[in-house]
Write a structure and sequence with these properties.
With about 425 residues, the chain is α/β, with parallel strands linked by helices. Helix content is about 60%, strand content about 10%. The chain folds into two domains: about 10-160, 3-Layer(aba) Sandwich (Rossmann fold); about 165-415, Dehydroquinate synthase-like, alpha domain (Up-down Bundle), CATH 1.20.1090.10.
Length: about 425
């Protein structure tokens, strides 16, 4: 399927003026701004005033609350605020606001424009909207924004924690693209070498500018924002997020669901991804350290996990959401001993290729150093999570997606972060 890409993508000091010109040129005279209290303060109020002064018919829906979640309640709140006329939606915010607006605009057949308030996530240009459905994080197919206009001054003034989160989200591409390659090698998952290379390049360019991004220089923030947009465009070009969302994202989703169930404060998506990337990079380092002979011994000892034990683990980890998780994980739960033996043979046959994939993931200590350079957390404790909660995500995050990641490989080989 061919998806329409956002055009133009503007990251500049005069981005808002260009946004107004864009709306005028396209005869977008009726607008609906979607923001929360924080993003309204950072950007929404200014944008609303500019549209008013330029003679546009503009309305605004303001989402209140300490934590804004992309779920049915917030989707309904935005839909209820619309007056039935054909309005262009403008998402003023970062990941959550964009996902809510993206979902509503897609389901109502209305275009939307992205006006980022912080360079904190890679989903601005994406087609997927991660939405909580019955407590489970599901990425639903929607559409990309018609255009993206990012005010460089607003981005540079964003809280450092959000800038660090955006950097961490990009750094996670080192492990996600490795999982992308691994899934193709060992489980025949859909793959595209050019998509993999583009994803890896995005991570490398931000790695090379980590110190400047940590200082939030305008040039580095422009680079980070373009990297985040490029990551979304890669997802759009491939048709799903496989190259940009691997085991590190599955752990992040697990923590998000866990915190919601326990009524605890949310943690920035990118911050969770960064810490998870350190842990997943450790698994890749362990794979790298294994010789073929050691891998063969471990594979010989590996046995197919019993389905009942797997289901019990899912129920323990996910509670009320367990049934939905198990349904999504059915291809692995229903694997036969012959299927499992075939995967073991494939692992050994392709061990040299697996080693090549693992070698492209930076060591966990280097991932942690880069995160620290930009001021991001590097351990579960810095996220406010216990060691037990970190282990829970590592043990159970892989159940959330029908993907063969390094977490699955580590399980077969008996490795542990």
């Amino acid at each position: 399927m061919i998806y329409t890409k956002p055009h133009p993508v503007v990251v500049a000091e005069d981005a808002l003026e260009q946004l107004i010109d864009y709306c005028r040129q396209n005869n977008y005279t009726r607008l609906q701004i979607v923001a929360d209290v924080n993003t309204d303060r950072a950007l929404g109020c200014k944008l609303e005033t500019m549209f008013d002064s330029a003679g546009f018919n503009v309305q605004k829906v303001l989402l209140h609350g300490q934590e804004i979640i992309a779920d049915a309640e917030r989707v309904y709140q935005v839909m209820l605020a619309l007056d039935g006329s054909q309005r262009i939606l403008i998402a003023v915010g970062a990941g959550t606001i964009t996902d809510i607006t993206r979902f509503v605009s897609h389901r109502l057949g209305l275009p939307f424009i992205s006006a980022p308030s912080a360079p904190s996530v890679d989903g601005f240009a994406s087609i997927g909207a991660p939405v909580l459905i019955d407590g489970v994080k599901i990425s639903l197919p929607t559409h990309a924004p018609a255009a993206i206009f990012a005010d460089l001054n607003v981005l540079s003034d964003a809280p450092r924690a959000m800038i660090a989160a955006g950097f961490a989200d990009i750094l996670g591409k080192f492990t996600s693209v490795a999982d992308f390659r691994l899934g193709h090698l060992l489980y025949n998952e859909r793959y595209d070498a050019e998509i993999a290379q583009r994803t890896y390049a995005v991570a490398r360019v931000c790695e090379e500018h980590a110190e400047a991004i940590g200082q939030a220089t305008p040039a580095s923030i422009r680079l980070l924002m373009h990297a985040l947009v490029e990551s979304g465009l890669i997802i759009l070009d491939f048709g799903d997020s496989a190259s940009a969302s691997g085991a590190e994202h599955h752990m992040s989703h697990f923590w998000e669901m866990m915190l919601l169930r326990k009524g605890r404060p949310a943690i920035l998506h990118g911050a969770k991804v960064g810490v998870a990337t350190v842990m997943i990079a450790d698994l890749y380092a362990q794979v790298r350290a294994l010789s073929r002979a050691e891998a063969a011994d471990r594979l010989e000892a590996a046995t197919l996990p019993e389905k009942d034990a797997e289901l019990a683990a899912i129920r323990s980890a996910f509670g009320a959401e367990a049934e939905a998780v198990a349904r999504n994980h059915a291809p692995f739960l229903d694997m036969t001993p012959d299927d499992y033996d075939a995967i073991k043979r494939r692992i050994l046959e392709r061990w040299d290729e697996i080693q090549t994939v693992a070698a492209q993931v930076p060591p966990p200590d280097e991932i942690a150093r880069l995160l620290a350079v930009v001021g991001g957390p590097t351990t579960a404790a810095e996220l406010g999570l216990t060691d037990a909660e970190a282990a829970l995500a590592l043990d159970n995050g892989h159940y959330l997606r029908n993907r063969f990641t390094v977490r699955k490989l580590a399980r077969v080989l008996g490795l542990r972060a």
